[in-house]
């Protein structure tokens, strides 16, 4: 992990936390992670209720700190691809181009569901190609 400055963990469970000891007298037994980890509770095959502003602020942080980012989930397809495409859209990519690039260059199975495609379109500020009345947000 020494090559990354920040982890974007989409599984909902930290991969770095060895112990969670919320008792002040015992806190010295906790070991801080070597790299900061953002842990998002993103449901498998679904989307997360984070707006474009989250992705914009993440990109701004990465740019201002010149940090490298590792994005991952369990399977590495749906959530990971959706997050990568969302980051790309706030960097100026059209959503369809970001989705196509992720599938062509990262994983052909990336962004697994129509709901995830819709999320990328929404983060890009574009009209989504599916009926938004059926979506949970």
Give short descriptive properties of this protein.
single chain, 137 residues, mainly alpha, three-stranded parallel beta sheet, 4 helices
Largest sheet: 3 strands, parallel
Number of strands: 3
Shape: elongated
The first-to-last residue Cα distance is 34 Å
Low-confidence stretches: 131-137
Classification by helices and strands: mainly alpha
Tell me the Rg in angstroms.
16 Å
Mean pLDDT: 89
Strand adjacency order, main sheet: 2-1-3
Order of helices and strands: EEHEHHH
> Helicity level, as a percent range?
25-40%
The proportion of strand residues reads 5-15%
How many DSSP H or I helices?
Answer: 4
Question: Can I get a quick summary?
Answer:
This protein has helices at 52-65, 78-90, 95-105, 114-123; strands at residues 6-9, 37-39, 69-72. It has 137 residues and is mostly helical. Helix 2 (78-90) packs across helix 3 (95-105) and helix 2 packs parallel to helix 4 (114-123).
Please tell me about this protein's structure.
The chain is mainly α and 137 residues long. Helix content is 35%, strand content 8%. The chain is built from four helices and three strands; from the N terminus they run ββαβααα. A three-stranded parallel beta sheet has the order 2-1-3, with helices on one face. The chain starts with 5 loop residues before the first strand and ends in a 14-residue tail after the last helix.
């Amino acid at each position: 992990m020494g090559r990354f400055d920040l982890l974007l963990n989409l599984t909902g469970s930290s991969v770095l936390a060895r112990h969670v000891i919320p008792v002040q007298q015992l806190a010295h037994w906790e070991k801080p992670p070597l790299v900061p980890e953002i842990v998002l509770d993103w449901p498998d095959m679904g989307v997360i209720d984070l707006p474009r502003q989250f992705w914009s602020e993440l990109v701004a942080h990465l740019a201002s700190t010149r940090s490298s980012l590792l994005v991952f989930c369990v399977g590495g397809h749906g959530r990971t691809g959706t997050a990568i495409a969302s980051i790309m859209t706030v960097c100026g990519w059209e959503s369809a181009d970001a989705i196509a690039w992720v599938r062509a260059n990262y994983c052909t199975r990336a962004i697994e569901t129509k709901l995830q495609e819709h999320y990328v379109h929404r983060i890009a500020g574009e009209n989504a190609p599916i009926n938004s009345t059926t979506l949970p947000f």
